[in-house]
Specification:
Oligomer: single chain
Radius of gyration: 25 Å
Shape: globular
Number of helices: 16
CATH class of the largest domain: Alpha Beta
Helix content: 40-55%
Number of strands: 9
Largest sheet: 5 strands, mixed
CATH topology of the largest domain: D-Maltodextrin-Binding Protein, domain 2
Length: about 425
């Protein structure tokens, strides 16, 4: 049984293009809690368009296998939606994403198997599409399984660090500086053999990092956390270390629940956790909307902890120290300008973050921007305090002497 499609191939291709654009826009909107619902709808519309025009394709020989796949997927999805807790949603999303990637890779392999027996060479566009699909699908499948394993505590939570990760500053076409959150991340990388060192602090204190509860929560301070569930992004993350610090400060033990950055607000609002350990702008969004309260302001209560630092490779430190000095001075000068020009800074933050709430932008400016350093001076006690937050994690770190150089401590705007 087939249903012939009475449309030209051009019309079909345009329709698939529209579906693809809907999926891309939908996925992009899923990156922010405020637009996630509309993003879901846009992506669903795109998928519906693609499915309808695929099902009426005249090349389909039988609908039985398609019906069986739809039935199996519907059953799995329905059961998962009803039984999987909100706190386990990141793991489920990781698995579903991996299944999609694996399917793309298998389709590429099947298409090659279908076309390869024919005589002559395969068209270049066909080979390119199959290789691209197989590569992206395989990476998505393996990466999603790793994400699931970490979130489910089946794998160690320690990050897999590459020397090119982080925000990079380039000078004359070469990477000079890299911004990496949290000092222990550098210590992990160096311990794994990455030859790099901290050359300057980015922020001295964890400004705009908070432990947040709902407005009507009975939890009033860190002393009330004993026995409670606290949402974090991942085991071994900065949010995890900060949450454990808050529990220790309150004198009790907590259960940290990894839900991913995108799952923190839904988990709290869904009351799957009692509190969440969060970084900007997430806590500011809850506080500005009046939906949440901060019971621990990490920046004020922990003090200097170096939540983010500037890092350079040992080769650049040895071979191009002047480039590092120039890059740091430029960063410090730009930071000073933002601090002294509030109106410009607010406009810049709004364009950069796409945040629609002006209150959140103002809080972001008053904490994150005003808390940025404008010189490279680094006190040893700051490094010790930062590394102390990771104690008891079970991870293996390099020493402070191995991760920091004071060669650029004199640099300022």
């Amino acid at each position: 049984m087939t249903v012939p499609l009475a449309l030209s191939q051009t019309a079909i291709n345009v329709t698939y293009l529209v579906a693809g654009v809907c999926l891309i826009v939908g996925i992009r909107r899923l990156s922010a809690p405020r637009t996630a619902r509309s993003g879901n709808v846009v992506a669903a519309v795109g998928m519906a368009i693609a499915l309808v025009f695929t099902l009426v394709d005249s090349d389909i020989d039988s609908y039985w296998l398609i019906a069986a796949g739809v039935a199996a997927g519907t059953a799995i999805g329905a059961v998962s939606a009803r039984q999987v807790k909100m706190t386990a949603m990141p793991q489920m999303v990781a698995l579903f994403n991996g299944v999609g990637g694996g399917a793309a890779a298998l389709i590429a392999a099947a298409e090659y198997h279908r076309l390869a027996p024919f005589s002559g060479h395969l068209p270049g566009d066909a080979i390119g599409a199959m290789l691209f699909s197989a590569l992206i699908g395989s990476v998505s499948f393996s990466g999603s399984l790793i994400a699931f394993g970490k979130l489910q505590d089946l794998m160690p939570g320690r990050p897999i660090v590459f020397s090119a990760s982080g925000v990079t500053v380039r000078v004359e076409g070469r990477d000079v500086l890299r911004d990496l959150d949290f000092t222990p991340g550098v210590a992990l990388a160096v311990k794994k053999g990455v030859k790099e060192k901290i050359v300057s602090p980015g922020s001295v204190a964890a400004d705009s990092w908070h432990l947040v509860v709902l407005r009507d929560s009975p939890i009033k301070s860190a002393k009330d956390l004993a026995g409670r569930k606290v949402g974090i992004t991942a085991k071994g993350s900065t949010t995890d270390f900060f949450a454990l610090w808050a529990a220790k400060k309150g004198g009790g033990e907590i259960q940290t629940v990894p839900v991913g950055a995108g799952g923190l607000i839904p988990a709290l609002k869904g009351r799957q956790v009692d509190a969440v350990s969060m970084h900007s702008p997430l806590p500011l969004q809850l506080i500005a909307a009046g939906e949440g309260r901060s019971i621990v302001d990490y920046g004020k209560e922990i003090g200097p902890s170096l939540p983010d630092v500037w890092v350079a490779s040992q080769a650049i430190i040895d071979q191009r120290p002047k480039a590092i000095e120039g890059a740091l001075r430029a960063i410090f000068k730009a930071t000073r300008y933002l601090k002294e020009n509030r109106a410009y800074a607010l406009k810049y933050l709004k364009n950069f973050t796409k945040e629609v709430d002006d209150k959140v932008i103002q809080l972001e400016y008053e904490t994150a921007i005003m808390g940025r350093t404008t010189d490279a001076a680094m006190r040893p006690e700051w490094l010790r305090a930062s590394m102390a937050l990771a104690e008891g994690s079970g991870l293996d770190f390099a020493t402070i002497e191995e991760i920091y150089t004071d060669k650029f401590a004199h640099v300022k705007e």
